[in-house]
Design brief:
This protein has 430 residues and is an alpha/beta fold. The chain contains 14 helices and 12 strands.
């Protein structure tokens, strides 16, 4: 079936963003592998609901600025919608649609009882004061409140947002829904108001669990392996920390200020302290300056792109020297680049599994909130490892059986679960 053969070019331009089209390319390839029902294909290539809201905010100088926010609810076949909220100056509807689609497929392949969604606001959060960011968050929460809730749609942090953002969101929702605490409306909250232990490091830890298993598939070990990490935000810092603790040589990292390299391995604990004091990694003692582009081409056993999407494409795929790529970010390797890298023997652990630690522990947090029973951090980490490695192993088995790449195998496993559920539920009204 041709993709979107009945599209109105103007009304459905949000379905033509590069992230979404890249996801759909993999989706259609995977659908062919499992001979997916064409009616299910038709339904899964479109989001169920796209919200666009205006967000007026009183700035500290008393002026009013109006920002644009989005919430895309892609599919709820398996459970309530679930996905983060992104604050970034490049956010637009097409990007949020792509991210929501990826969340749908991610939650499915991980075996979670959750659908997929994503939200975002077009804003540079670094240019907002704390009070301005709070005003922005509360008004956004109020605008989409009718469409979210513990049994409807459960947001979480993403790029540019954090536990404090979720605390403001939760409080706004709770005040507007009767005035009592409803912690289950969001995840990624501070522990003091219903957050889960282990949530802050979950995505980075999940990346390392997957990296360890991928290295094993290549007959290598984490200890002594050279690791390069693009992005030194939440995911990248924790991935670097856990890799270092397991004996890996983290030879390169990068953030918005650029990259640093040390062939003998960077001292990650000292680097983390340095970043706390200086705000970025620039001029870290004992390192040489490299660009983000150069970091991607570092000679290493494992490359962990933990920044933004589309970092490895057909233009630089041939230059990648890593033996393994573990996608800590959403969509950091394009579909075309995947094919080039596969031909070169580079093993790719796809984002829908590799960075699934965050949503897995978000699921744990939601369960704890609605049951009012909370777990120890060790329990959270252990349960995380079990779920993410089970998903990885299932997909790897699928890859071997079908002789396809891991990305296609992950998507095929995801679609297969969604297809079965959608056929069982049927079509409403009919």
């Amino acid at each position: 079936m041709p993709y979107h053969d009945n599209l109105n070019p103007e009304s459905e331009a949000h379905l033509k963003g590069p992230l979404f089209l890249n996801a759909m390319k993999t989706f259609h390839e995977a659908a062919k592998v499992i001979n997916c029902d064409p009616n299910i294909v038709e339904r899964l290539q479109r989001p169920r609901r796209c919200l666009t809201v205006s967000i007026p905010v009183r700035m500290d100088d008393q002026s009013v600025k109006v920002f644009t926010g989005y919430r895309v609810q892609y599919n709820s076949t398996l459970g309530p919608y679930k996905g983060g909220i992104r604050y970034h100056q490049n956010v637009d509807l097409s990007e949020v649609v792509g991210l929501a689609a990826l969340m749908t497929f991610k939650n499915s392949v991980l075996g979670l009882p959750l659908g997929g969604a994503k939200g975002g606001i077009c804003v540079d959060p670094t240019k907002l004061t704390r009070s301005e960011k709070q005003g922005l968050t509360r008004r956004y929460a109020s605008e989409i409140a009718a469409f979210v809730g513990p049994t409807k749609d459960i947001p979480a942090p993403d790029v540019g947002t954090d536990p404090q953002t979720m605390a403001w969101f939760m409080d706004t929702y709770s005040q507007e829904q009767g005035g009592y605490a409803q912690p289950g409306v969001v995840t990624g909250k501070p522990v003091e108001i219903g957050g889960s232990l282990g949530r802050n490091h979950a995505t980075g830890l999940g990346v390392i669990y997957v990296c360890e298993r991928a290295l094993e598939m290549k007959q290598m070990k984490m200890s002594g392996s050279r690791i390069a990490v693009q992005g030194f935000g939440n995911v990248g810092t924790f991935a670097s920390k856990f890799a270092f603790e397991r004996g890996a040589r983290v030879v390169a990292v990068s953030d918005v200020s650029g990259g640093i390299f040390n062939g003998d391995g960077l001292n990650i604990p000292k680097l983390l302290e340095y970043v706390k004091q200086n705000g970025n990694i620039r001029n870290f003692p004992g390192s040489q300056v490299i660009s983000n582009e150069q970091l991607l081409e570092v000679d290493c056993e494992a490359l962990l792109p933990c920044a933004l999407e589309g970092q490895i494409d057909s233009n630089n795929a041939e230059k990648i020297k890593a033996k393994i790529i573990v996608e800590g970010a959403n969509g950091p390797v394009t579909s075309n680049a995947t094919k080039i890298l596969e031909k070169r023997g580079v093993f790719i652990a796809p984002d829908v599994i590799a960075n699934g630690g965050g949503v897995i522990v978000s699921y744990f947090e939601w369960v704890q909130d609605i049951t009012s029973f909370f777990w120890d951090e060790s329990d959270v980490d252990t349960k995380l490892k079990g779920i993410i490695l089970k998903a990885f192993d299932n997909v790897y088995k699928f890859k071997q059986e079908k002789n396809i790449d891991m990305r296609t195998a992950a998507m095929a496993a995801s679609i297969s679960r969604l297809e079965k559920a959608m056929l069982l539920r049927g079509l409403y009204p009919r």
